[in-house]
Every structure is written in structure tokens, then in C-alpha cells.
Amino acid sequence: AQTVTQSQPEMSVQEAETVTLSCTYDTSESDYYLFWYKQPPSRQMILVIRQEAYKQQNATENRFSVNFQKAAKSFSLKISDSQLGDAAMYFCAYRRDDKIIFGKGTRLHILP
Amino acid sequence: DTAVSQTPKYLVTQMGNDKSIKCEQNLGHDTMYWYKQDSKKFLKIMFSYNNKELIINETVPNRFSPKSPDKAHLNLHINSLELGDSAVYFCASSLRRPNTEAFFGQGTRLTVV
């Protein structure tokens, strides 16, 4: 069975600094999608970034980028120039076919 | 124009009652889901429907009965509510192919007292 592990329950970063959130996953499949979702206090689940496993190039969305290491089954999220609005729970997720599996989340605090 | 909408946003009810949560999506997706988020924020899939057909049932008690009248709607009915059912329930939708991201509703906070 597929699993997604986020080993950092909480992290803090100074405003304007860079932070990296870790995620590892376990699968025997070669074709799948990976995502990072953000959940602010409003509770809305917001897609931050997606990565298709067959693409070697790391995905980037403005200040958000990933480091996708397929062989190591690692998918970390880097947030550059952290802003107060980035404070939220961040979930790593894996999708293959009909199931999207989430990690337990990392709570990110932004220090002013 | 809301993409995935679920109602109600908040639901407080007594143990033993029966309640329903409704979900609708206007994205033209063919797959819909129910997720449960517990007090520790863990998101666990409950059900997945594709074209009104149940695809995934993750060992959820049979007090929980999803119903999909059409591709755009997936409702969740819960019988005989228990204290442990208190959680946030999220509806989501996606395309089945390709396996891209799911879009989530705003969640329903269910409190059983």
C-alpha cells in the first residue's frame, strides 16, 4: 500500500527567509502524481504545486518549488521569501488512479 | 462561482441523530470523494465515486452511506451519530484521467454532542 510521510510536524521560518518542507512516499508504481496542498486557518484546501512522476524537471510556481527525487521517493517543498500569508498546514499528497493519499501535515509558522 | 460547494459548513447535533452533508461540483469532473479530517488534521479518504459508481470504500462504518445521484453531486448521510464522528468532512472532485489534483469544498465541521 502506498504511504506518504511528513517527518516535520511543525516548522518555523523568519519572514523573507527560505524554508523546506520534507515529504517521502512509498510506492511500487512508476507513473503517479504528487502534490502539495496548503490549509490556512480558513480550513480551505488549496493546491500549491503538482509534479508528474514521469517529468524529471522540478515543478515551480512563483515562490514555491519542489525537489523531486524519484529514485529516493522524496518530494520536498521549498518556499522562498516566506510571507506571513504562508502560515498554514502543508500536506504532501500522492495520487495513483482513484486514491489520493495525504501525509499527516506540517504546520508552518512565519515569524515576523 | 464556487467550484466545489458543500452544505452545511457547520453542523452540531446530538448523539443518535441522522444527518446529511451535500456536495456539488461544477467543474465537469467525473470523480468525487469524501475525506474525513480528524482533530489532529489527518486527512483520510472515506469514499471515491467515478461516474456515480462507488470505487473506493475505505472500511468506513456502514452508518455512513454516500449517494451520488449524478456526476456533479455526492452526498453523505450518517446514521446514529456517535461522538467519534466529530470531525471536518471534505468533499472533493477531480478528473479520473489524467490523475491530476482534486479540488476541495470548504469542509463541513460536524460536532456531535
Molecular structure report:
The complex is a heterodimer of chains A (112) and B (113). Chain A has no helices and twelve strands. Chain A is an all-beta fold. In chain A, strands 2, 5, 6, 10, 11 and 12 form a six-stranded mixed beta sheet that branches. In chain A, strands 3-9-8-7 form a four-stranded antiparallel beta sheet, with no helix packed on it. A two-stranded antiparallel ribbon of chain A has the order 1-4. In chain A, a hairpin with a 2-residue loop joins β7 (60-61) and β8 (64-69). Chain A is globular, with a radius of gyration of 13 Å. Chain B is mainly beta and 113 residues long. Chain B has strands at 4-7, 10-13, 19-25, 31-37, 43-50, 53-57, 64-70, 73-78, 87-94, 103-104, 108-112. In chain B, β7 (64-70) and β8 (73-78) form a beta hairpin. Chains A and B meet through β5, β10 and β11 of A and β5, β9 and β10 of B.
What is the structural class of chain B?
mainly beta
Radius of gyration of chain B: 13 Å
Instruction: Determine the N-to-C terminus distance of chain A.
Output: 41 Å
Helix content class of chain B:
under 10%
Q: Structural class of the helix and strand makeup of chain A?
A: mainly beta
Assembly of the depicted chains: heterodimer
Summarize the main sheet of chain A. 6 strands, mixed
Arithmetic mean of pLDDT of chain B: 94
**What share of the residues of chain B does DSSP label as strand, in percent?**
over 45%
Give the low-pLDDT segments of chain A.
none
Low-confidence stretches of chain B: none
Categorize the overall geometry of chain A. Answer: globular
- The number of strands of chain A is 12
Largest sheet of chain B: 7 strands, mixed
C-alpha-based Rg of chain A, rounded: 13 Å
Fraction of residues in β-strands of chain A: over 45%
Largest interface: A-B, 23 and 27 residues
Estimate percent helicity of chain A: under 10%
**H/E series of chain B:** EEEEEEEEEEE
- What letter string, H or E per element, gives the SSE order of chain A? EEEEEEEEEEEE
Choose one word for the global shape of chain B.
globular
